[in-house]
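Annex B. Sample input.
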Amino acid sequence: MKQALYNTFIDKKNAGEKSFAVLIDPDKVTLQSIVPLVALAVEAKVDYFFVGGSLIISNHLDVCIQAIKANCNIPVLLFPGSPSQVSRYADALLYLSLISGRNPELLIGQHVISAPFVKKSGLEIIPTGYMVIDGGAPTTVSYISNASPIPADKNDIAMCTAMAGEMLGMKLIYMDAGSGAKTPIAEGMIQAVSKNIESPLIIGGGITTPEKAYLNCKAGADVIVIGNAIEKDVSLIKEMSDAIKSVAVKA
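Annex B, continued. Sample output.
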């Protein structure tokens, strides 16, 4: 099984390097807007593009990814909200299992349905334990998943959930407060999880300032994912990247 991209997550974590992923929802971009966005990302030394959304209405996922790939060498990873969000043009697929919820369809059910198609796609598959954290507002992912998020102040639940996901074989742990969250994930929760797992830890949702991105990295996040804030102001890409990559590398 391919694991070249997964190895980059591991190598960066082992080196103490923090990574920046820009999340692109195909419903919220046009082909005309992708080119300047990618140019800014290249200039800012963005590490990854995550492409997907909880509910994709448009049918130009493939075209969106091809446009990104045509204009840069930044790896593109699918961040799917459903089994239909698979494109052979991407580099890898975050195979998400919603370990924070109790909906069997999103723990394993949809994976069973999508497995033959995913296997044939030729994509690098990265098993990812996906944890939704309460961000203070209803989110599309919570509604679609029909699962309650982990309360924002329950660090112990988040920690044990991440530990269980890792021991079940999840190669990445992704904690998400959801797009447009009013309250991003607290540094205390990130720290509690980070200290108790060895898998790379991805943090997203409600991160709107470079300061918050920096503090999340200091707390133990390995990858910061930003989408909604950049949709509103693409000029944030450089500031966010500088903040994330300014976190001291381990001696």
